[in-house]
Amino acid sequence: MRLFGVLAAMTAFTFSLPALAETTPPVALAIHGGAGTIDPEKMSDEKRQAIAAKLDEALTSGYRLLQNGGSALDAVEAAVRVLEDSPLFNAGVGAVYTWEEGHELDASIMDGATLEAGAVAGVRTVRNPISLARKVMTDSPHVMLAGEGAEAFARSQGVEMVPNSHFDTESRLKSLKEAKEKILAREGVSHQAAVESLESEFKMGTVGAVALDSTGTLAAATSTGGMTAKRWGRVGDSPVIGAGTYADDAVCAISATGHGEYFIRYNVAADICARAKYQGILLAEAADEVILKRLKQAGGTGGVITLDPEGRVAMPFNTEGMYRASIDAQGNKQIAIWQSVIEP
Ligand code: ASP
């Protein structure tokens, strides 16, 4: 009975917002807060409600901008900043810990109108990495900056800097300690194999957003702390354009979450867009093909949020759950964690 209660209460909420549907031309927004093993039985009602409320806040902050004629880039940045500032997600505050007990943050953003993009990897003292990624796109001649160089660029741009401890949370530190114990206990197992077996358990909560604005421009953004216990400057898919983030006004806006190594190797975001473009199939179909078949067969866990030029949303994932929320071009709003959608 408890399970039914939980499912009925939280699997997903859908609402129709007729007033918003009248917005012309249509705008749309989808966000995610990470995919992975999310056991409904293990999540307290309080946490579930806190996550739903924060997703709603992030969605609303981006959507309001779109309704007021704001750009898709402004909307995805605003939504991601709300999630970066929340300790509930693995981005900004609440980022997972590296092996050395610090935080190294990755983020990227892409403009579907121009195919311009910006990304940062391994930054340690930038409060909102997504805003720095946008600065890389608009104020540098490059696409991706990493580590110390990215920090120096951040200082030169006057973005808000914080001590690395700003991102600390008790729960993520506990996860690091558990992860390290498990990894160190597995003698004879390579570090990489150990991390792979732990990844879905300890890295939940990357965040992302995709938006369509009233000029028909699409944008995508992704931000993460990466994977618990990562070492050696490990960088995942989130700041890699084509893997974790992609936008092209002709076909798609995509933000991914999952086991980054797979998303890089399978070039997930760009592959979904390319399939839709060259096979002439719906973006939703292409996303299912890649996430539910190709990636799943390969053992790659995770999901994507996608938005097409018509403002249609698809959010497939091959894990137990994915924190997500959206308002499509018709004004249909959804907030969900697990698979099935329950009408309120
Ligand atoms: N994709 C992220 C990474 O591998 C992690 C995640 O999405 O949970 O860094």
What does this structure look like?
The chain has eleven helices and 13 strands. The strands form two sheets. A nine-stranded mixed beta sheet has the order 1-13-12-2-6-7-3-4-5. It has a four-stranded antiparallel beta sheet with strand order 8-9-10-11. Strand 10 and strand 11 form a beta hairpin. The protein has a single domain, classed as Glutamine Phosphoribosylpyrophosphate, subunit 1, domain 1 (4-Layer Sandwich), CATH 3.60.20. With 344 residues, it is an alpha+beta fold. 52% of the residues are buried. It is 39% helix and 22% strand. It binds aspartic acid. The site of aspartic acid (ASP) has 12 residues, from strand 9.
Whole-number radius of gyration? 19 Å
Uncertain residue ranges? 1-10
Bound compounds, each kind once, are: aspartic acid
- What's the CATH first level? Alpha Beta
Structural class: alpha+beta
User: What's the shape?
Assistant: globular
Q: Tally of extended strands?
A: 13
Assign a percent range to the helix content.
25-40%
Overall mean pLDDT stands at 90
Strand and helix order: HEHEHHEEHEHHHEEEEHHHEEEE
Describe the strand arrangement of the main beta sheet, using strand numbers: 1-13-12-2-6-7-3-4-5
CATH topology: Glutamine Phosphoribosylpyrophosphate, subunit 1, domain 1
- The percentage of residues in β strands lies in 15-25%
Number of contiguous helices = 11
Largest sheet: 9 strands, mixed
Terminal-residue CA separation: 18 Å
User: How many domains in all?
Assistant: 1
Q: Identify the CATH architecture.
A: 4-Layer Sandwich
CATH homologous superfamily (4th level) name: (Glycosyl)asparaginase
